[in-house]
Amino acid sequence: MSPFEIGMASFGVMVVLVYLGLWVPFALMLSSFGGVWLIKGSPILAGKLLALAASKTISSYFFGVVPLFVLMGYIVSVSGMGRDAFDVANHLFRRLKGGLGIGTVGANAIFAAITGISIASAAVFTRIAVPEMMRHGYSARFSVGVVAGSSVLGMLIPPSLLLILYGLLTEQSVGDLFIAGVLPGVVLALLFGGGIWLTAHLNPSGLGSMRDADDMPVLSRRELLVKGLPLALLIGLVLGGLYAGFFTPIEAGAVGCFGAIVIGLARRSLSWRDFWQVLNDTGLVTASICFLIIAAQMYSRMLALSGVPAEFGSFVASADIGFWGIILAYVGLVIVMGTVLDSSSIMLILVPLMLPVLATMQVDLIWFGIITIIAVEIGLLTPPFGISVFVIKSALDDPEITLGDIFRGAAPFALLMLVLLGLVLVFPQLATALI
What is the model's pLDDT at position 373? Predict the structure, then answer.
């Protein structure tokens, strides 16, 4: 077999292993090891090459940004800032029809700006927002749907773990990617809020028998200051310092962790027991991401040795489907893969394959990264995988709300994400204007 044929066979084996249920990093590692072994003819050499790829990846200074932002997100979650974001957002939108749903979107947007983890947003607001919306007459389907839909803001509004992962895979500036995610994230939040507002006026039964204004809490100026100021300070500290150039993304994560710890201690909402649990959870998530990135580098190294990316690039270039044909085919493939794989795995599999193709077309990799994140995030809301949906289901105490209810409730938000995807494809300035 030629190296190209071995590379394609390894890719096929990896896909089969994933569909059989093997954890994606292990599937990537096994297929990579087998591919390099067959290409080089030595299992020892294959092991050494892949070990070198792994050590080079983890020893990278830029990898330090992952555990720092994960730690900050968990500290923010346990210190009660999610509840504060919900209260502040509801106070701001309480006079609008459908205001509780719009407030949930706003709270998720605020929470996203200081965490960067979609599943954290889904877990927090399932416990906070869903009972409150159902108490005010919103249907269960809409209540869980708005939480599922708006939770994806956590991977688009910076800081975002997926943007960090994309930056590591493509060697692009994480700071530039963060800046590029701001406008699309804000536009998506506005689309979600506008969609809820229009539904409340044109088809109020779609939201249930809502009654927003009867007993919504009205915060005094002092309460608004106490709840809103820590959030504003932390967002300003992390993103303001990053965009102003005072520190790098890694330093921003460290400063954000310190700020979150100080705020939690000052509010007396962060105990030693909570902090120990946060450290454990951060270690587990970081180890999981670490395995993913190591596997991705092994997979990329095997592909490079086999020549598959170069051949794939030549094939696409000679296929005469044009720039938009390639981009739309890629986006469609990402969305389809989102039905069965998690976000990180899709990026680890497809981005290394596309990089040689993009290089020949001189595509802006920052813009392409935002396109990739939006398309990948649609998969968080699509059956049968939809990881955000499963997180919400596991956080619910109501057995009457089924997975089907959550998927159907999230469907309108997935459609609005497709609208945003179309806007960023047609108007690249949405992703690049602030850079």
Answer: 92
Closest by CA to 81, choosing from 146, 125, 134, is 125
Q: What is the pTM of this model?
A: 0.77
Residue 195 confidence (pLDDT) = 92
Which band of pLDDT confidence, cut at 50, 70 and 90, is reported for residue 387? Answer: low
Q: Is 34 within 8 Å of 13 (Cβ atoms)?
A: yes
Q: Which range, of 114-118, 198-202, 351-355, 416-420, averages the lowest pLDDT?
A: 114-118
Least confidently predicted of 13-17, 184-188, 340-344, 428-432: 340-344
